[in-house]
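Lab notebook: predicted structure, single chain.

Context: the supervisor wants predicted structures on file for every construct in the current expression panel, including those that have not yet been purified. This is the next one on the list. No modifications to the sequence; it matches the entry in the shared construct table.
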Amino acid sequence: MFTSDSDSVYERTIRSFSTNEAREIEDLLAKLIVLGDASLIIANLKREKNLPQECMASILRSLVINISDGSSREELKKEYNKICGKYPLKGNIIQNLRAEYFGNATFIEPLIKTILRANENDFSLGAFGDEEVRSYLMMLIKGNRSLREKDLDNFSLRPAERNWMWATWSDRDGGSPFDFMQTKDLTQVPPNLGSPYEVRLCLALECESLRSPTSNCGNMLLLTYEAAGIEARIPTIADAGYYKYFLPCSYSSDHGWTNPSHQDIQDYYTKCLQRDGYCSYSNKPRPEAVHRSITLGCLQRVEELRIPSVIV
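Prediction complete. Output recorded below exactly as produced.
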């Protein structure tokens, strides 16, 4: 079947439904629009052009079953994320990818907790805990990869129920995924990457909370690993769930793109200009993809960025 770039998966799916089912879905979405968070969900549902139609149909039907016009914002976001989480990695495989290395940004404390949770039931990996995983990462941060605890190489970075990662890469041949950084300043990462999923807490407007004793995120880590052998896919709404900085790409896109044009990020840019007279960030979108989780042994380099004492 021919698919035009102007023809969204949502439109095709609605046309495939019976008149009554289509009306039920569109009536629900019309009632939900009064919730501020619902407007983003609805907009991205209608923009999506890379998710298989059968997945879109299941998401829409699940919304009708599990969401009512009396649902709260939090209930809506929680249920939407749960529904989307059933269909990760369904976008097209990215062909002819010219990336040598992928990059992923995260925070050290949540990463350690996630790694331990992801591998807690794999007895073949031995009895390793927080101290051993932290030491492994510190060896990579210090550039002493050969001194790492090799028994941890097979530790997955993501748990089975969320076994996928977001990645970016350089648009220059052989470049570093983070070559956009002019200084080692953590606040450059979110605006340059359009605030990818793993660094949502680091968004400049929310950075103040990172210094809160209750946040305990630790410093940011920039993870670099080889792209060879990784099946990267175009991100879809199912990968992103409710994440307001995600923007579905067009059907003709070779890969996903970050969304630095979001108003929050533009506001950050404006505040930097007002404070410093400059801002070391480009509003040029950067490439992005999703892929299955890698293991610790895949990491080639880990760079640590400290939380700055002054944040806009």
